[in-house]
Amino acid sequence: MKHILVVDDEADVRDLFEQRFRKEVKSGAISFAFALNADAALDYLSENVKAVSLIFSDINMPGKSGLDLLSKVKKGYFDPPPVMMMITAYGDDENYKKAISLGADDFFTKPIDFLKLKERINNF
Amino acid sequence: MVFLISLFMAFRMRKSLVQGEAAMLKWDKILTWIMVFSGVLVLVNSSLNKPFLLLLAGYGLMGWLFYTCWKEPEFSSQKTLLMSLAPLGFIFFVVDFSRTLAPDFFDNYKSYFETAKIIGFAWLIATIIMYNRQMKALKAEKIIREKEAQENRITAARKAQLEILVRERTYELRQQNEKLKEALEELSAAQKQLIHSEKMASLGELTAGIAHEIQNPLNFVNNFAELNEELVDELLDAIVQKDFKEAETLAMAIKDNEQKVAHHGKRADSIVKSMLQHSRGSGNAKENIKLNDLAEECIRLSYHGMRAKEKSFNAKMELILSEDVGMVEGVPGDISRVLLNICTNAFYAVLQRVRKGEKDYQPTIWLETGMENEQVWIKIRDNGGGIPAEVMDKIFQPFFTTKPTGEGTGLGLSMSFEIITKGHGGTINVESQEGEGATFIITLPLSK
Q: Given phi > 0 = left and psi -120 to 50 = alpha, else beta, which region is B250?
């Protein structure tokens, strides 16, 4: 069973993920937690980091960005650092490079290819 | 005595002759002879003890001189002298003849004759003094006249000069006027061009933000549409298997998703609309605007616009939108232009402060709406560098900008001011503490 934390400022992302992975959720193979911003994600992680097998975060969020979250997740806050995948906007090379340097484990560009995402999740 | 009078009279008459006139030569000769004759007889007469015949000739000569002086126009200037001498001449004539012809009568009235003589002399002296005075006065007046004439001549010359100058200046001014008119036309054309490019520049700035803002709802639309396709298949399966409870759950999910598709579709729609309104000129019709929605859309657009230029830029947006705020009547494109402009300025201000690298600085923009006295207010606050006090009263002036050359047209706030005050009967104000941020407050009248 894999527990995935999804960080995105769009509230409807919850419904989207739960429906896209409805079979996996139903079967108990995957469970989700959602955070609307980086601070909420850090709060959640500080208590549940052991349970989280993967963080999936948007970069472009008001307030602290996904990159801020990434740097905190990967730099000593948690041991061992959780796997983290980033969502970058189409053609945003600058953030893509920054995310690599900060230690992101994988990248997805919007719109998210859910088949590819499922495959990746299964491989972790 | 009579010859002295004649001599004097002739002398003055001769002197008064105007040089160069034909009559002068004739009179000159005659008067010279009279003077010589009179001069000789003055001496002869006094030594011969006044013989009667000589006296007769003397008075004849004097009478003729008086008559000539009176009659001839050449001697009109000597009439005053005639007036002075004639009484004396007459008195001497009476004295001399009465002494010779009626010595008894003369002796009887001798004292009267003496008195008359004195009066004659006194008259002569008095008139001469008066004459001299008059002459002096005349001379002085003549000098004044001449001076005046001279001044008049100078004035006239100056006037002529001035007229030429005025004509020249008028011509120059007319030419300058023409040039100014041309310049004004060019300027107003340039102004139109500038306003257009300001709109286009801010649109370009926003394009990336708009793209991002459309991308998100569009992704939701696509995702939920795809999901619904799958769910409908599952629903059909459930119906075939007669699992109506599952069918109901699926149908509810499909309905929810349909609502999400519609919601995000509308979101994208309104963004596209606001973009079109922004690029179109003003002069669009006024509509009832949901101010909270428009304001939120604008702050998001400008945030993403800023992020498109500064990829690493990030700021917190605090939205405190009052439910009381209803509809506002306005031109949506214009109102959104104002809000976008102020929001973009706010993001620019916090970005500048981020660049300074202050520790623990959290760039934040607050968007607040509310109601007060039948007016809707919108506050846009940032915690950027603030506005220096010395430029505070200039920020709404056209072409005023603190941005480096090429980064701002300086028209954003002046256009915003026009739109809010003239276009919508509202107000726009700014409060700022240097180093702590700025707050723009817009008020708009509610829809009727």
A: alpha
CA dist B60 → B2, B94, B121, B179 (Å): 10, 13, 21, 90
Q: Quick check: B219 and A90 CB within 8 A?
A: no
User: Helix B332-355 crosses helix B244-279 at what angle (to 10 degrees)?
Assistant: 90
Q: Residue B179: is it exposed, middle or buried by C-beta count within 10 angstroms (0-12/13-18/19+)?
A: exposed
Residue B319 confidence class, pLDDT cut points 50, 70, 90: very high
| Cβ neighbours of B222 in A, within 8 Å | 111
How many C-beta atoms surround the C-beta of residue B329 within 10 A?
16
Q: What is the pLDDT of residue B20?
A: 64
pTM of the model: 0.52
Of A10, A19, A98, the CB nearest to B227: A19
B233 bridge partner residues:
none
Band (A118; pLDDT cuts 50, 70, 90): very high
Single out the residue of A38, A37, A1, A31 nearest to residue A17, CA to CA.
A31
CATH number corresponding to B287-445: 3.30.565.10
Inform me whether the C-beta atom of residue A37 falls under 8 Å from chain B C-beta atoms.
no
User: B197: closest CA among B305, B279, B140, B312?
Assistant: B279
Domain ranges of chain B: 2-148, 203-279, 287-445
Q: Are B206 and B198 in contact, with CB atoms under 8 Å apart?
A: no
Tens of pLDDT, residue by residue over B372-414, are 888 999 999 999 999 988 888 888 887 777 777 666 667 788 8
